[in-house]
Design brief:
The complex is a heterodimer.
Chain A lengths: L8 E14 L2 E14 L3 E5 L6 H8 L8 E10 L2 E2 L5 H7 L4 E4 L3 H4 L6 H13 L3 H14 L5 H4 L9 H13 L5 E5 L7 H18 L2 E6 L11 E6 L2 E7 H6 L4 H8 L49 E2 L5 E2 L14
Parallel strand pairs in A: 3-8, 3-9, 6-7, 7-8
Antiparallel strand pairs in A: 1-2, 1-4, 4-5, 9-10, 10-12, 11-12
Helix pairs in contact in A: 4-5, 4-7, 5-7
Chain B lengths: L1 H28 L3 H6 L6 H11 L5 H13 L13 H36 L4 H15 L2 H15 L15 H35 L2 H8 L4 H38 L5 H10 L3 H29 L1 H5 L1
Helix pairs in contact in B: 1-4, 1-12, 5-6, 5-8, 5-10, 5-11, 5-12, 6-8, 7-8, 8-10, 9-10, 10-11, 10-12, 11-12
Classes of the chains: A alpha/beta, B mainly alpha.
Protein name (chain A): ABC transporter ATP-binding protein
GO biological process, one term (chain A): peptide transport
Subcellular location (chain A): Cell membrane
């Protein structure tokens, strides 16, 4: 184990590199990902499918399938420990207890064979012990907290008796029952109706304020999280391309990819006109372009972009950006 | 649950009527008829006619069937043609032997089949998985009576550690009961072990990739609870189905096995009754067997509601 833990932050991901095994052999899917999550902070990790945001979030709790992946460098610092090097038994004591996770598909993320109450209470008993009855009472409190009416009676329901939004609320109740210090939410609103999406986002903000947990919120839609984010980390093709305080990023993005994501938000569309899109698609891990990985899709690309690897460098007031033209480009934010 | 049970028991009544009719009808179709079995080795036409009259065989077929069925419902399955013994008491006498054999076989199938299947599913592609697959294929293709004979050859004749034949009641000596039954039970279990192992491997491998297993892992659950609770209950339906099919198949296989190991069970009684044309005995055994199979299927069906609460709702 090398390196030391940066002080002041709750979780610190440092130069994380992960390879996956595929039919083509080992390919790199995370290429030096670094960012911090502060205590009580909501960090939004945004990027297209294949950008590595889910792999990053799963790595924190060691949930990336071990047989098909390997870490080639990096650390995930939490409480003085490197989570990537922690023995699995100690990691299990942290999972669901100090760091919890909710997932994209509320319809399939709950076990159909057990009641909702049993599954929520199980997380509590695993880490806090005690009688089942006490854990169920605590589960009822949590269901109530996440806004499910008649919570005590609904404990006995099976997941198929819950709607999609209610299941995601139940998942959140399960994740927060041990009062974790960090909640990782992997696209928790993607599979839900638009109206329910907003409710879940509001719920997460309220819970952060009430419980004081930090949140890592993964999404591909910057529009959903505009009011939620304290900090935004933009990922593209396995790399962090921009990190910024949320407000600054929305007003004036520094990376052309961020500009593209902002312009593609439906809220930004002009009536009667087609929504702008980013041409092309994310490169496959085995055919990464040289130099800037976004270069081939970038409307601002110059010859220099394809020459050398572009480092993530600090631009003004603590923001960082992986673009060799970040100094001379003036990009458009939200209107 | 009780309402479901009641409804399912009610639907068994018409099924039982059809099955009992088929049992009685098929036996009555056998050429020669019961009177040739009863009238001795050199029957005169007069004697045959007398026997037919005694047995009520001159009545219309439906009346004969109804007489037999209504008596059976009241617990009277008739008397053996061979020795006049009550069919009911003959079956009741052999039943503990056959039940012992079937239960022991199913236990072996459950322990070995589930164990092999789980070990294979939790480490797909490993040497354990490959070994379990080979064992399952091998067990699937071996005739059980041949396995029984080979086991006797090795353990009873060469090594002399197990008895070759015979039966000792459990009440008399549990150890001897076990030693006498373990060889035939193991031989009978090889196919169920293979079937259960395969179903378990397939079902558990499928469930392991489900999102809710990842959720359980993210909760911090340890592997024993993760697999023992979250995976097994979801993987149970196909495994229990296979188990039920094998249990029903076993009832037939005991006929050969009890003959081979001289076990005085219902299987041996069946064999003897068929060859001595003991019609009432064969009919009685078939009827009881059919009822048993219906109950096994009922138990399997009811278990679905427990393993998958969605089924109960629909």
């Amino acid at each position: 184990m090398t390196g030391t833990e940066p002080s002041g932050s709750l979780l610190s991901i440092e130069d994380l590199r992960i390879d996956f095994v595929t039919d083509r052999g080992w390919v790199n899917v995370l290429n030096g990902v670094s960012f911090d999550i502060g205590k009580n902070e909501i960090v939004v990790l945004v990027g297209e499918s294949g950008s590595g945001k889910t792999v990053t979030s799963l790595s924190v709790l060691g949930l990336v399938p071990r047989a098909h992946s390997r870490k080639t460098s990096g650390h995930i610092w939490y409480d003085g420990k490197d989570l990537t090097e922690l023995p699995i038994g100690e990691l299990r004591d942290i999972r669901g207890n100090e760091i919890s996770m909710i997932f994209q598909e509320p319809m399939t993320s709950l076990n159909p064979a057990f009641t909702v109450g049993d599954q929520i209470a199980e997380a509590y008993r695993r880490h806090r012990g005690g009688k089942k009855k006490a854990a169920l009472a605590r589960a009822a409190e949590m269901l109530d907290l996440v806004g499910i009416p008649n919570a005590a009676a609904r404990l006995r329901d099976y997941p198929h008796e819950f709607s999609g939004g209610m299941r995601q609320r139940a998942m959140i109740a399960m994740a927060l029952i041990c009062e974790p210090r960090l909640l990782i939410a992997d696209e928790p609103t993607t599979a839900l109706d638009v109206t329910v999406q907003a409710q879940i986002v509001e719920l997460l903000i309220r819970l952060r304020d009430e419980t004081g947990c930090g949140i890592l919120f993964i999404t591909h839609d910057l529009g959903v999280v505009a009011e939620l984010a304290d900090k935004v980390v933009v990922m593209y093709a396995g790399e962090v391309v921009e990190t910024s305080v949320a407000r600054d990023l929305y007003i004036q993005p520094k990376h052309p990819y961020t500009e593209g994501l902002l312009a593609a938000m439906p809220q930004q569309g002009v009536r009667g006109e087609e929504l702008p899109t980013i041409p092309g698609r994310t490169p496959e891990p085995w055919s990464m372009p040289s130099g800037c990985r976004f270069g081939p899709r970038c409307s601002h690309a110059v010859e220099e972009c394809g020459k050398a690897v572009i480092p993530l460098s600090v631009v003004d007031n603590g923001r960082s950006c992986r673009c060799c033209r970040s100094g001379d480009l003036a990009l458009g934010g939200v209107r | 649950m009780l309402r479901l049970l009641g409804a399912r028991l009610l639907t068994m009544v018409p099924l039982l009527l059809v099955v009992s009719f088929l049992i009685y009808g098929l036996i009555a179709l056998v050429p020669g008829g019961p009177e040739t079995a009863l009238a001795g080795s050199n029957p005169t036409p007069e004697k045959l006619a007398m026997v037919r009259e005694q047995l009520g065989l001159n009545e219309p077929f439906l009346v004969q069937y109804w007489n037999w069925f209504s008596a059976a419902v009241q617990g009277d399955l008739g008397k053996s043609f061979v020795n006049g013994q009550s069919v009911w008491s003959a079956i009741a006498g052999g039943f503990p032997v056959t039940l012992s054999l079937v239960i022991l076989t199913l236990l072996i199938a459950a322990v070995l089949g589930l164990g092999l299947g789980l070990a294979a599913a939790l480490r797909p592609g490993s040497w354990i998985d490959r070994t379990a697959t080979v064992i399952a294929s091998l067990f699937m293709s071996l005739p059980y009576f041949w396995v029984g004979m080979m086991l006797v050859l090795v353990f009873a004749i060469d090594l002399r550690v197990l008895p070759a034949i015979g039966y000792v009641p459990f009440a008399q000596s549990p150890t001897d009961w076990f030693l006498h039954l373990i060889t035939p039970a193991f031989a009978l279990a090889i196919v169920p072990v293979a079937v259960v192992a395969r179903q378990t491997r397939a079902a558990v491998t499928g469930v392991m990739t489900e999102d809710y297993v990842r959720t359980a892992e993210a909760k911090g659950l340890r592997p024993v609870r993760l697999v023992g609770k979250h995976v097994l209950k979801n993987a149970a339906v196909p495994v229990v189905t296979a188990f039920g099919v094998e249990a029903n198949r076993l009832i037939g296989a005991t006929v050969v096995m009890e003959q081979l190991f001289a076990l005085p069970g219902v299987g041996k009684l069946t064999y003897f009754s068929v060859f001595s044309r003991d019609f009432p005995m064969v009919q009685g055994i078939l009827l009881i067997t059919a009822i048993l199979i219906m109950f096994v299927n009922l138990a399997v069906d009811l278990s679905y509601g427990y393993f998958n609460p969605k089924i109960k709702a629909t």
